[in-house]
Amino acid sequence: MKITTPEAPSSERPPVRWWPAAAILALLALAIFYFRAVREDSQQWRNVYTMETCVVCFALSLVWVLFLSRLRWKVRLLWSGSAIGIIGLAAATVRIHGVTGDLVPIFKFPWSRPPSAPASTSVDQTTEGRPSPIDATAPRPTAGFPQFLGPLRDATLPGARSWRGTGLRARQGNSGASGSERDGPASPSRAIGR
Asked: For residue 64, what are the contacts with CB-CB under 8 A and spacing of at least 6?
């Protein structure tokens, strides 16, 4: 007579479920291919759609790691915590200074110094620390022609100051005038009186 003992339940974990991660990466590749090669948009929109697709892929990857991967909970929390920590570190140490013409962000560290301006564009400071009014006789760095993105082509205007406290106000219009007259001139020819 053969005595059989009941088998103990298997302590093996089910295998890691990799197919959702592969599906997410395949969809990422297809979406980027679609936005870059198939869809006819400007380069700016292609870059925006690519960035949005990468953010969605990252979020789906976190969902996969936390809920669908069958990894041990220790590993799940380590991966997701690391990803969130890296994002937090990047947010704390990098600032978006602006964007290029193709809408690609320009990242800068908060502790980095701004580039020094040429001597001809420096602004004299008053004793109170505010910039003094721009001297009309001062030489301009652009030789008289306004440049795209400002005189130094860096999207800044040296010597600009706030209009607050100067007594200038926005035009309020004439309450007795008709709509088009109240809103001001509609074209240069109307401003001249033609």
From this structure: 20, 21, 24
- Please, are residues 47 and 102 in contact by the beta-carbon 8 Å criterion? yes
In which element (H, E) is residue 105 found? strand 105-108
Q: Which of 58, 78, 68 is CA-nearest to residue 18?
A: 68
List, for residues 114-167, the tens digit of each pLDDT value. 766 555 444 444 455 555 555 555 555 555 556 677 777 777 767 777 667 666
Higher pLDDT, 169 or 57: 57
Interval 32-47: pLDDT, tens: 999 999 999 999 999 9
- Amino acid at position 107, single letter: F
Q: Is the pTM here over 0.70, yes or no?
A: no
Specify the DSSP element, H or E, that contains 99.
strand 95-99
Determine contact, residues 100/81, Cβ cutoff 8 Å: no
* Domain ranges for the chain: 19-108
Phi and psi at residue 113, to the nearest 5°:
-85, 145
DSSP state of 131: B
> Do 75 and 13 touch, CB atoms closer than 8 A?
no
pLDDT number for residue 20: 95
Q: How many helices (H) and strands (E) does the chain have?
A: 5, 2
Q: Are 165 and 171 in contact (CB under 8 A)?
A: no
Four-point Cα dihedral 70, 75, 81, 85, nearest 10 = -130
